[in-house]
Every structure is written in C-alpha cells, then in structure tokens.
C-alpha cells in the first residue's frame, strides 16, 4: 500500500510516525506509520522527513497542512476548517 492510496477519497489524513495519532475529528483518517502501517524500508519516514513522535496532517488536496509533535496544534489548525463534531 502507498501513502497516496490512504489519502484517496477527499478527506484529511493524519499520519503519526512512531506514534498512534488521535483522530482530531470524525472526518480525519488517522494512521500510525510504523504501527498499523509498516514502513518497509523507511520510505514514508523519508518522504516526510519525519522524526519519532511527529504527526503530519495532509489536506484533502494532498498538500501537507501542518507537521508537529503537538496534538493541540493539529486541533487548533482544524478548528476553523471543519465543522464541530456531533
């Protein structure tokens, strides 16, 4: 499986590198790279130049929205972009 395949479908995707990210909203797909998805050869980590514990939020158009070690920063970034969850 490729990262591009995980991002298909017009949704936000949150990758956690060496950490299981908390989905910040029901419409965000959260994926643990190195956990539920094996990063064979370290390709995903190199592609994102990610460090342990870092998360990368990818917008529906495939561009990186934010990279951080701070879950609160992800929540704050998405707050104006997504409707409040029920």
Automatic annotation (TrEMBL):
It comes from the Bacteria. Gene3D superfamilies: 3.40.30.120. This is FAD-binding domain-containing protein. It comes from Streptomyces rhizosphaericus.
């Amino acid at each position: 499986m490729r990262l591009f395949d995980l991002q298909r479908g017009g949704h936000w995707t949150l990758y956690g590198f060496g950490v299981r990210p908390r989905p910040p909203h029901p419409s965000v797909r959260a994926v643990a790279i190195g956990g539920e998805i094996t990063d064979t050869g370290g390709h995903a980590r190199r592609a994102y130049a990610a460090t342990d514990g870092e998360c990368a939020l990818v917008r529906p158009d495939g561009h990186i929205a934010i990279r951080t070690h701070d879950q609160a920063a992800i929540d704050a970034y998405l707050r104006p972009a997504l409707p409040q969850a029920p």
